[in-house]
Fold:
Amino acid sequence: MSTVHSSYPIASAPSSALVAIEDLRVAFAADAGAVTVVDGLSLTIERGETLAVVGESGSGKSVTALALLRLLPQPSGRIIGGRIRFEGVDLATIAEKAVRRVRGIDIGMIFQEPMSSLNPVVSVGEQIAERLRVHAGLGRRAAFARAVEWLDRVRIPEPARRAISFPHQLSGGMRQRVMIAIALACGPKLLIADEPTTALDVTIQAQILELLRQLRAELGMAILFITHDLGVVAEFADRVVVMYAGRAVEEAPVQPLFAAPRMPYTQALLRSIPRVNRAAATRERLVAIRGNMPDLRDLPAGCSFHPRCTASRAGCAMAVPAYEQIGTGHHVRCSRWRELTVVGAG
Amino acid sequence: MSVGGEHVPLLDVRHLRQEFPVGRRGFGRAAKTVKAVDDVSLTIRAGEVVGLVGESGSGKTSLGRAILRLIEPTSGQVFFDGIDITRLPARAMRGLRKHMQIVFQDPYASLNPRMTVGAILAQALNLHGLAPGAEREPRIIDLLQRVGLSAAQMRRYPHEFSGGQRQRIGIARALAVRPRLLVADEPVSALDVSIQAQVLNVLQDLQRELGLALLFIAHDLGVVEYLSDRVIVLYLGRIMEVAPARDLYANPRHPYTQALLAAIPQPDPSRRGRPAPLQGDQPSPLAPPSGCVFRTRCPIATAECAVVVPPLERHAPEHYKACIRQ
Structure:
């Protein structure tokens, strides 16, 4: 069955997992050869579970989602190693036609900018109905009736009237609700949500997160939630993988990740978020992470984070630290984790 | 009504309106207008940091630009150091410009890609006849160092810098002419989280060192709280609440401010599952609700709220709210 490999020695995927990514490597063709943008990523998503993948630009979080869907930009993006098992089937190697079926039925997806995924000249009801006709085999009339039901399910008022609206006639929040309806219409086992609330106002973001929470409880699908926002992660995820420069650097259930993060990068990220009702009371300074995101074409030797890490030692530049299990479901990629004090979000 | 200082403020905005025509005027059909800013009055004292918070469509960017007269206000007055700049001829306005600078959201679009960073800063100095001849290079180096960059980097081009560095270059350019007022329009919104704190810290240090008045525009109450002395909350072109930062966050009086605060995702899993504080979408700015513009989403609105435009009333010293229900 699944092979055990060096970068992830502890958890070989349990066979029950809905998704088991093993040692995934993704590269993009560039002027001077290939750039590895995801380097040896392993993760699992259980049925009904919400896994958040958190990272900043260049972390590889969105590329991981695209690789899972086999939607890497062509011809430059390529899976150069590893497996992406979905219900045991390796999506990295199966035929394009089979992947399309999986994308249509088993995996739904929503992105940051719904406008770029919706067809501007087709009514939103018709766009949901099309999904149902193509992938669930419904007739035209039945599919449209079901589409109206879905608009109601994603809490769009006056769904029958809204079904004949075009995307530009809807607000950003409404468009994201339509995208959610399209993604969930065929009853997927997995929803991939890539920064679904990033472009929205904060009051609308709260509505969309609430809706996704309700639909998750009703439908029981697993969610791969990709975001840069640790606040949203805390609100929504069961488990969290933190990525930095193409590698997973920490993974834990959501409670311990926020209460006792062990990777200095995770700790620093948590401290750099302005917390409401903190600053005014104490006038505390934000803890900035020094330096910049590394260039993936020219990654620092050893731990990619070490040039920006306040806890780094000479040894940190020697080798990429192992991804060690340090607690139940808690992994960290830092050779100094034992010596460092725990700084939580507290 | 003016809100704020007892002394003569550096900036005094009175009943500012900013309208934009929308769509085409047809036969027998008047052009519609959007009231992006609707009767806003505010003051900023010398050296004070005022946060201006609102969601998209609140008019915060239009207000920032109208204050600097980068766009011409429809009506109202903007006094800078006692001078009404809305009536000022172009030549006199140019003389005042060096006292009022702006930093934009997008650090990629706001720097000329074909000029070195040194040339960009030199241009800003030139424009206002500052630091001529031998004074120029030391001045540029000093500016770069103040924003955490090095002298050697003045010969580089914008594309050689990261987003956070570019935003610091934008700040250096704005401060090159030693302004007394800086408008920062979402200066960290386009940056990665780990970089935002760097830029905010630079901005805060410089504001304190130079005694700048700062109007910090953001959609995010979290970022604003960290920098601001006072905070203004805007919704559909109108001020909902103004208060000292501490007071606003600890004791918000307007239901919209309360909702904005409640909607911020907290990095604390034990607080998850709170219901969304507001239902529905913001109404179109083309057809704002009568009375209180927030009433269609307000959890405590009554019939009276559709009739009365709530005045901005004093609730506590320097704390004002536009709500007849609270």
User: Anything to note?
Assistant: The longest strand of chain B covers residues 32-44. Confidence is low (pLDDT under 50) at residues 1-5 of chain B. Chain B is about 30% helix and 20% strand. The two ends of chain B are 20 Å apart (CA to CA).
